[in-house]
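Just curious: can you write whichever protein you like plus the matching structure tokens?

***
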Amino acid sequence: MTIGIGRREFLAGLGGGAAMWPLAARAQHPAMPVIGFLNSRAAAEAAYLVAAFRQGLSEAGYSEGHDFSIEYRWADGQYDRLPALAAELVQDHVAIIAATGGAASGLAAKAATTAVPIVFTVGDDPVATGLVTSLNRPGGNVTGVGVLSNQLGAKRLELLHELAGNIRAIAFLVNPSDSSSEMQLKDASDAAHALGMKLQVLKASSPAEIDAAFASLVDEPADALLLGVDPFYTSRREQLVALATRHALPTLYYYREFVAAGGLMSYAPSLIDGYRQTGVYCGRIFKGEKPGDLPVMLSTKFEFVINLKTAKTLGLTIPPPLLAAADEVIE
């Protein structure tokens, strides 16, 4: 009987210990850190950028599911949703916020927290937009990658001018909801004036407004189109390329993705590489570096891409010097 009681007590103790072990194990192994991925675009069309972001983390020595997990917040082109989405990530105690998809995401994250490290990906000047006060020593909890596409409006107009010297009226489509729209408009206006071109300003911040902007060109035709830089426009690239083709408008875009979708030309830095670098910086912060000590990385390589098939569809002959200057020709 004594042996039986002892055995039952032993088994009971063993059962209690087995029940307690997972709790002890969890106490010894802290929860996996979470990256909050905040983006102004839509998830369905940005998968290739998420892949680039993960690649950067992998290059830094971190594996998703083993070293970290990602919690996503997508604004679907509605920039006014970003502040609430950023606040949600802070409330969820994420370890880092990757504020991607333009300055609006970065500014929303910066307004939501001064404690959680933030790594942004923007096409604007990070100092001019107020994300950081210095590129070399950003300070505070914010750093990131400047994929400087917004500052290239003048160069893009020059390329359109080289495409056809008889281009006199340029339509410029800009999203008034974007914080950099006024700066882009001024740069484009100054460049158009210097080249003796008339700039027709079109504004659109929704799919329906994009359609309406192109419809307005029937009454006031333009010789070519320059697209303002905006994450929402990137997410609507198929719509924009289809409309430009339908209206027979030679168009210069701000990312290669438009040309791959059938657009005519682009002059731009690599957006994919920008997201990869953002992942690398998140990895460096995981290793203990402070965001304020990490210099803001800027684009150093720019690519000129031409789609010859689209040129033929539009009845255009690309001048040999322009063709020779292209970094990539899609046939």
